[in-house]
Each structure stands twice: as C-alpha cells, then as structure tokens.
Design brief:
The protein is mostly beta strands. About 5% of the residues lie in helices and about 25% in strands. It contains 1 helix and 11 strands.
Amino acid sequence: MASKRSKSPSAYRKPCSLCEKPRDVLVRCRIDDTLQWNFVCPGPCWREVSGGVVDGTEDKPNYVYGGMWKNKHAGISARKPKKKGSAALKKDWSESQSDYIQNDRVKHEGRLWICRRSHKSSGENAPSSLSYRYWNEAPFAADDKQSVDDNTNIT
C-alpha cells in the first residue's frame, strides 16, 4: 500500500502580483482600470496600491478591496492582530477635514460615537442616527460612569 505524502505548506503559496514573492497571505484587490483581481502581499505592495487604508484613498480611485487569501496548509491567520486594551477617544468630533479610521471614538453632542468606516469629516457625515453609514453610537452615553475626556481610554 502506497503512503500518501503531503506537500510542504510552502508548495501552496501564491506569488504577489507586484513583487512576485510567494506568500502565505495575500490581499485580493483591484488596483487599476482593467478591473482584474490581483493578489498583493499585505506589506509594502498593499500600502502602495491602497494608500495604506482598507477602503482605499481618494488618490487611489481604482483600488477595490476584495478580501484575504491565505494558505490553509500553512496554519496561519489572515486576521489583523487586535489592539491591546481599548481604543482611546480621539477628540470631540470636528468638521475640519479630520481623518477618521474604523473604530475611532469621538464625542459629539454629549454622546460617544464609534467610526464604522474610514473617512474624512464633513457636515454630511457628522455623528448622528442619520449617519449610520459612518458612525455607530456607543452602547453607553459619554456622560455615564466612564471618563470620556481627550486623555483617557474608555474601558
């Protein structure tokens, strides 16, 4: 009876579309106007094509995130490591072209809001129940027992 030999996990790696290095984890994305899906390594190549933001930036109009690919034979995770501790309050919400990224916490009109997706601030996306695309109200009010000033963490 012949024994089945399993291939090494490195045999299942895919090359990055830009640098051609074989990787265990790749970001699937569209990077140009051809609308073809590419597999890009999550290091410098991904930062170059996306602007370093999952949703892309205004100067990268052709970038579209399409998920993660991982080598299941390598036993690794494609998840971003979780931040230690809880997210800090950024500041009071500002309409003056502030950059907000996912999970940023801001205080607006006495309530605490959590950013749902990366964006620049403007009058149309101020934290409110009408701006659900960008913000979720935190499960507790800003004036509750937790201290919510600019220099503290919310626990």
